[in-house]
Amino acid sequence: MQHSYIYGCSAMRIPALFSRLVTLGLLALIAMPLLAATAWRDIQWKDLQPDAPALRKQVNDLPQEKKDRLLRAVNQRELQDALKKGQIKPEHLVENDKALLAEKFADVQALVEQIARYEARRVSELVGELDQQPVRLSGYLLPLQEKDGKVTEFLLVPVIGACIHVPPPPPNQLVVVRYPAGYASERLFAPITVTGKLSVRKSRSNLALADGSAEVDVGYQMQADGVTEYKRKPN
Known about the structure:
Oligomer: single chain
Number of helices: 5
Shape: elongated
Structural class: alpha/beta
């Protein structure tokens, strides 16, 4: 599925005489969908990525000294990967980097490998349990389609500048939202809160920018029932 949008460089009255039985029956049928419609599950962006509770507990249960070593071991692996990919030149390494590369972390190496495997899953996998679930999620609006001056389809993204000024987030951090009623927004990345039924379904959005275009892989879709300006919760 393709989406596109061009940007600049810098947005009853009840009828009488019903029997008591019929009235009660109708009220029950009416109340059920109303109650269901308000049963939103508040989610955060991290909930759109797979979790690893057993691994998290294993790390949390470590003594602080072991946690510190694990962190350094993870940093070492990231530095090694950056060197292999040419993102850092060996001649640009400072003394602390060289000391880190020389350290041995055999005691936490197995845990480092588990974390690396989880990180690969975290940025690539979708959370199937969220399919067809009514949710409420806050983020920033990146318009895709408009009608009568209102945004009727947009990307919901977790950070300002996503998909335009920086590399796009992974697919499981992007949601295509359809909202036929439309939301009046005069700027990109307006902070909003969206309620609706979430679908775990991959698609691709094509963003036509003033200085080029970019295709973005999206992991989730939502048919919105409501879009409101984001309101920060009081402390």
